[in-house]
Amino acid sequence: MQYPPVAESGSFPRPRAEGPDRDAHPREAVVPTMSRTPVPTLGETELARLIEELARESRRFRFEVAPNPCVGAAVLAHGQVLARGYHEAWGGPHAEVNAFAAAEATGVPASEWDALVITLEPCSTHGKTPPCVERILKSGVKHVIVAELDPDRRHQGIGLRILQEHGVKVELWERLAPLSKVAPHFLAWTSQERLRRPRPWTIAKWAQTRSGQLVPPQGVGGGRWISSHAALEEVQRLRGRVDAIVTGVGTILTDDPRFTVRPPGDPSHPPLRVVLDSRLRTPANATIFRPPGPGEGGGPVHILCVAGTDPIRHGALLASGALVHELHAATDDGVNLREVQEWLWDRGARRVLVEAGPRLLTHYITAGFVDQLRIYTGAVNGGQGPTMAQRLMTMKLHDRLDREWGADAVLEAFVDPDRRP
Ligand SMILES: NC(=O)c1ccc[n+]([C@@H]2O[C@H](COP(=O)([O-])OP(=O)(O)OC[C@H]3O[C@@H](n4cnc5c(N)ncnc54)[C@H](OP(=O)(O)O)[C@@H]3O)[C@@H](O)[C@H]2O)c1
């Protein structure tokens, strides 16, 4: 869909953010002038309550959608809420799209939809999915109520302006669902610091025994498995929702994993498999090089080493199907992690999963590159090797969620950017 040029009247320009453009949009961000008036079909109190409910419910999906924001939307018809929808998974449909799908499923024709309520300004750019403003315009809804503007100054106000210019009545009901409460992680993701030096949203995931060790006792789980079957399945879903999986050569040498995506994960767009291996110790016959089995997805295997490694090993790994890249050495250990993050970003990786042993995990946390945690504590006593407890104590976590999954206890949390170690 082609939009007409954005008119400047009745609006004020906002400053452009510096730094590399995530999803380039050619236009100046502008904010329309909007008033707060009751929707004809729903009283002011009910509408305020609806916005708060949508915001609260949307937070259930915070760990699934990050670094995207939590967003809820509702379609109103005949003075009532007809359907609700949420952004439920990163890369999946946005809240507006899910709300419209739910509204369609009721059988009430779109011609009877009075208004759309959204907790955050609809997107106007192509990301993993088409712009939501297109879907809104296609729906024919003539009244849109939004609770928060996009905090990214490059996009702020643009979605609303496009709707206005297509004859949609737009209202901004601020302060009912502030992003600082609903999705503080999204404010960190769109912060000036992050825009200036972009790096992928990084999720560190590990499994530990009851004593916090990442390696089970000898003779348990084949020396490798700590988590229940249910937890392993959940990890497959997570793998299907990231752009890259990063591991260390220690894990390759000990566990010989595949890092494929298998059902119930979505294997259709498997993430890059990235091994940090400064001296090219990865065996040329490692399982990671085998073609994925039926129903499995396996992304390209990239090995990141330090410049000047053995050319024979280099050649052997290329022959196995790996793509080998030379980076700088870290001052203390292995490959320079800042460069790794930049390398991932340059390859389009925005959401990255670190599935590694204690050594690489420790370095990732210490460098301040971990944004989100998922820790499975399995029903296994004892264990071998170090725990991550010392590292966890240095981090300030927020939005923490403790839950049970199968036989495992699961801790999920975001890492506060102001208190990274
Ligand atoms: N429970 C879990 O969730 C889980 C997950 C994975 C593994 N594990 C277990 O962890 C054990 C292996 O532990 P590990 O700590 O050796 O494995 P690791 O963290 O996966 O790999 C560490 C290796 O990665 C390389 N590396 C390259 N750049 C690095 C950097 N910047 N920082 C740190 N390392 C870097 C280093 O080898 P070079 O110096 O040669 O480059 C280092 O020895 C195995 O027993 C495995 O079963 C457990």
Structural write-up:
- The protein contains 14 helices and 18 strands.
- The chain is of the alpha/beta class.
- The chain folds into two domains: 11-187, Cytidine Deaminase, domain 2; 199-419, Dihydrofolate Reductase, subunit A (3-Layer(aba) Sandwich).
- Helix 4 (132-139) runs parallel beside helix 5.
- The chain is elongated and about 70 Å long.
- The site of NADP nicotinamide-adenine-dinucleotide phosphate has 30 residues, from strand 8, strand 9, strand 10, helix 10 and helix 13.
- NADP nicotinamide-adenine-dinucleotide phosphate binds at residues 206-207, 214-215, 224, 226, 247-251, 254-255, 276-279, 281, 330, 333-335, 337, 355-360, 363.
Write a brief caption for the model.
By secondary structure, this protein is an alpha/beta fold. It is 27% helix and 23% strand.
Kindly list the characteristics that best describe this protein.
421 residues; 18 strands; 23% strand; nine-stranded mixed sheet; Cytidine Deaminase, domain 2; binds NADP nicotinamide-adenine-dinucleotide phosphate; Dihydrofolate Reductase, subunit A; alpha/beta; disordered N terminus; five-stranded mixed sheet; 2 domains
Give the arrangement of secondary structure elements.
Layout: E1 11-13, E2 30-32, H1 44-58, H2 62-65, E3 72-77, E4 80-86, H3 95-106, E5 113-118, H4 132-139, E6 143-146, H5 158-165, E7 169-172, H6 179-182, H7 184-189, H8 192-196, E8 201-208, E9 213-215, H9 229-239, E10 244-248, H10 249-255, E11 272-276, E12 301-306, H11 311-319, E13 323-327, H12 337-346, E14 351-354, H13 358-366, E15 372-377, E16 384-387, H14 389-393, E17 397-405, E18 408-415
Parallel strand pairs: 5-6, 6-7, 8-14, 8-15, 10-11, 10-14, 11-12, 12-13
Antiparallel strand pairs: 1-2, 3-4, 3-5, 9-16, 15-18, 17-18
Helix pairs in contact: 4-5
